[in-house]
Amino acid sequence: MRLSRFVLLLSACLCCLMAHGQVDVEQIKTDFRYWSAEGHGTTIDEADKDALGQISRQIAISILSKSDDTHIGQGGQDYYVQESTIKAYSFASLQNVSMIVLEPEPNARVFRWVAKSEVDKMFELRKQKILDYVESGRKAEQRLQIDDALRCYYWALMLATAHQDAKQPAVYTDFNGERENSVVSLPKKIKSVISNIKVRLDDCFAKDNRYVTTVRFSYDGHDVASVQFRYFDGQSYVGPLTAKDGVGELELLSLPADKKVKIQYEYAFRKEAEGLDSELMSVFASGRSAPTIDNALVELPVKVDFKKNVMAEDKKYKEGVSAPVTDAAVADMAVEPISQKRRMELDFVKDTPELANILQQVETAIAKGSPQDVYTYFTPEGYKLFETLLTKTGKVSLAGKSQTYEFVRANGQILGRFCKIKIKFRKGKTYMENIVFRFDENSRKIQSIALALTKKAEDDIFNAAATWPEISRFTILQFMEDYQTAYFLKRLDYIDKIFSDDAIIISGVVLKKASREDIEGMPIDFGRQDVLFKRETKTQFLSKLKRHFNDREYIHLTFEDNQTKVINAPRIPKGTAFAIQINQMYNSEGYESPGYSDRGYLTLVLDASKKLPIIHVRYWEPEQNDLMTLDEFMQKWSF
């Protein structure tokens, strides 16, 4: 039995032992300042849902009765209101709904009530959420995270549409120097973003009775950091596939008869909404049609020689193609200014035929799915990581016809960057990744591997590290690569090693998305009404993480938009204490349970004086405009 279920039953028993006189139910029922309802069911859960459903209907009827909506009958009887109409209002974010259990199971009765003033607060919170999503979309667009930008803009549109349906004042946004109703401006913005994505064919070759096709995505002349899409393989649309640093790979079952490769950009991200935001989930589930973006499908013309059974780039479209735009207002929509940073110079190693030959052997092992063939090229620890990647994650395959490596000297290692791979999971979710092979400079054996950070995340670290010693630059980069890889490979042993035994670990749960019992630990008040923060011990944190590793097929972290600085910490040697604040995107798929996604900012404080950096502070908070800065965080905690 889940802990939250146990607590609910316990509260039911306690409530039944209490005298009902503590809450005058009958008085509340007749008090015009409250919405209230008595729910019935076999279980407490059923009765609670019944009561909440009744309150939702009352609120919806009240809103509709003040408008010209014809669903309301004379006297406002609720049976004239269709269920889909009520769901469209989405009261999932309603705060401070009180509850008392009148009768226990098996004939449960639950009484719920909420002040009518809370409804106005709810709509104000929704307005702010719409604006927050729009702002997050702008930042993602600037960082070339096009999938994230489309997601934020579309979710803002869904909420704005529900807001308007609930007869609330319009929420205005300004994309082109002119304030406009979000319900009007956001569809144009989304179509504009899609129209500014260009896709071109890089390569195509036959492999295992398929046609492996590499495509490259750019946005406003720059490789995208990420974009998510589906594609037509000759029989059906498959995916979603997430392109990384501009590169995506398709597997076609047949060459396109119409000489066009069809790509459908993802923009709704409904599945992610179900695990991330209960209010959005309610809006999606309302039964009303979600706004359709009619230019999300792009057709890439290619040259096909059916006699030779080959496909190649059509030179007329060498620069790529974009989705068509017929609306002048969409065409005139401005692109958010792209945030580009100058890359730090790296120490490249040029004479590396021996290392290149080793990686060619490793490529063959990846293609065959037989890590044991290249055991001799790895240290024991390095081989364990490589074997885990190939045998205990999804289906791993090389991306593209051939690999091009760069070899970089760093911290007594030589980094072999990057081996492009594709990892596909059971339900079709596919990620493009770049592997970094880290060679010991003396033995020339691979002592570790990692999934590389995105180019944008690496640039953030290296630019912050412009004045640091070289060892610090690569220490932080390698640590963040290892951290995200540890989650993907489910390395609980590694995570145990990198946390101090007395680490300050603060985890958060967004309320209305999860119950207060979903995380263990001591509650901490950070002045947030929508997020529950709790301080966990290292043991509690690892125990929770172990459960996650056991019931999820994969956990995929992506880091972006990070700030890193050297700080002063009395317990850490001078010059080796680092604070990192990084945007973390968490995606997972359960073996039996549904997928889960969340996005937020992770703050880490590290002691980098040892060979393996140690985390002294881990703090998570949602992506909000009132995000606590690194300086504010340092003032709040001492360690």
Could you outline the blueprint of secondary structure elements for this entry?
Elements: H1 3-17, H2 25-30, E1 34-41, H3 44-65, H4 83-87, E2 98-103, E3 108-115, H5 117-142, H6 146-165, E4 172-174, E5 179-181, H7 182-195, E6 197-207, E7 210-219, E8 222-223, E9 226-232, E10 237-244, E11 247-252, E12 260-265, H8 270-276, H9 278-284, E13 297-305, E14 310-313, H10 328-331, H11 353-368, H12 380-391, E15 395-398, E16 406-410, E17 413-424, E18 430-440, E19 446-451, H13 455-464, H14 470-488, H15 492-498, E20 499-510, E21 522-524, E22 531-536, H16 538-551, E23 552-566, E24 577-590, E25 596-607, E26 614-622, H17 630-636
Parallel strand pairs: 10-18, 20-26
Antiparallel strand pairs: 1-3, 2-3, 4-5, 6-7, 7-8, 7-11, 9-10, 9-12, 12-13, 13-14, 15-17, 16-17, 17-18, 18-19, 20-22, 21-22, 23-24, 24-25, 25-26
Helix pairs in contact: 5-6, 6-7, 6-9, 8-9
Outline of this structure?
33% of the residues lie in helices and 31% in strands. Strands 9, 10, 12, 13, 14, 15, 16, 17, 18 and 19 form a ten-stranded mixed β-sheet that branches. The chain has a seven-stranded mixed β-sheet with strand order 21-22-20-26-25-24-23. Helix 5 runs antiparallel to helix 6 (146-165) and helix 6 (146-165) crosses helix 9 (278-284).
